[in-house]
Amino acid sequence: LLCSQNYPLYIRSVPTENELKFHYTVHTSLDVVDEKISAMGKALVDQRELYLGLLYPTEDYKVYGYVTNSKVKFVMVVDSSNTALRDNEIRSMFRKLHNSYTDIMCNPFYNPGDRINSRAFDTMVNSMMMQVC
Q1: Which residues lie below 8 Å from residue 92, measured CB to CB, with a gap of 6+?
Q2: Which parts of the chain span the membrane according to its record (predicted)?
C-alpha cells in the first residue's frame, strides 16, 4: 500500500525472508502504474474503481495494481505458479483491501499519510494471504 507520493503506508510479505526483494519489485512497478494511469487518461476520472490488472509478470511472480481516486496505490505480488488466482479473485482482493483502507481513513485518530498500524487491517491481510497460500 503506497500513498500518492509513493512512500509505503503498509507492506506485508510472506515469506519474510524475501521481503527486500518484494520491496524492490513493488517500487519498480510504480513506473508501470504511472504509465497505465496516464495512458487511460480522463477515462479514469469517471470510474470509481481503478483496477489496473496485471502490471507485469516475472519468472517467479506476477505483479498486479490498483489505484484509488485519491491516488493511493495498492500493489500485489503473487507467485506465478499459483494458477488458482484469476483476475476476478485478484480484483475482489483489491476491493477488500480498499474497503479496509477506507475503514482506517474513517478513524478520527488516524492521520492520513502515516504508516498503517491497525490490528484489524493486519488480521484482514493475513487472512487473505493464508487463503492464497
Answers
A1: none
A2: none
CB 86 within 8 A of CB 103: no
Q: What are the domain boundaries of the chain? A: 18-131
Query: 117 φ, ψ to 5°?
Result: -125, 75
In this structure, what C-alpha cell is assigned to residue 75? Answer: 500493489
Question: Residue 81: what are its φ and ψ, rounded to 5°?
Answer: -75, -10
Radius of gyration of the chain (CA): 14
Tell me, which fold does domain 18-131 have in CATH?
Answer: Beta-Lactamase (3.30.450)
| 83 vs 18: CA distance, rounded Å | 21
Instruction: For residues 54 and 45, give the distance between their C-alpha atoms in angstroms, rounded to a whole number.
Output: 20
Q: Which long-range contacts (CB under 8 A, 24 or more apart) does 37-42 make?
A: 37/67
Residue-wise pLDDT for 75-109, tens only, equals 999 888 877 788 889 999 999 999 999 999 999 99
